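Dig into these lines:

——
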Amino acid sequence: MGWESIELPDAEIALDRAWLPEPEADALFQALLDTVPWQVHRIRLFGREVDSPRLSCWIGDPDASYRYSGRRYEPHPWPPALEPVRERLSVACGAGFNGVLANLYRDGRDAMGWHRDDERDLGPQPVIASLSLGAARRFLLKKTSGVRTPHRPRAGSEKKSGRPPDAALELGHGSLLVMRGATQCNYRHALPRTRKPVGPRINLTFRQVLN
């Protein structure tokens, strides 16, 4: 299919709905499902720590420790199945990646709330390459409002505003979404729950941690 531009003001977003061919996507999905040390991470929500509604693992180079959701994570080593994918992504995106946050959504009850990938460790205009494997899920984008401050709004505040998302994308098996430039400054994104019966999904968000 090739790349398509997602037209949103003050953002640079591109999507390839079939970046990884299906046989390769199938093999990678199964390899990661079997070999990644999946964990329930603790996240800060409304001022307290709770279990995240998904399984996760921070993977990266030895010096790529990463802080998000109020905690710092030391990287797990790269699984052999991910090394060639990282190299191909670097060529496709024109950017280097020294870490990847892997999330496993076990079914439609697992989700990701509104947030930005704008941690200081990533620099002011990070390149985020998001590779999806397994069941297709809806990915929402919503423009931020007001002046940006060092502190994020509480989780769920965007939903309570009642304003619909500015874009809704279905990210399927083998799709690659790339966000760069000022996207993280100007937009939040989320993966909402669904009542539809869906199978497991693995999402890999490759990034460059600045040490």
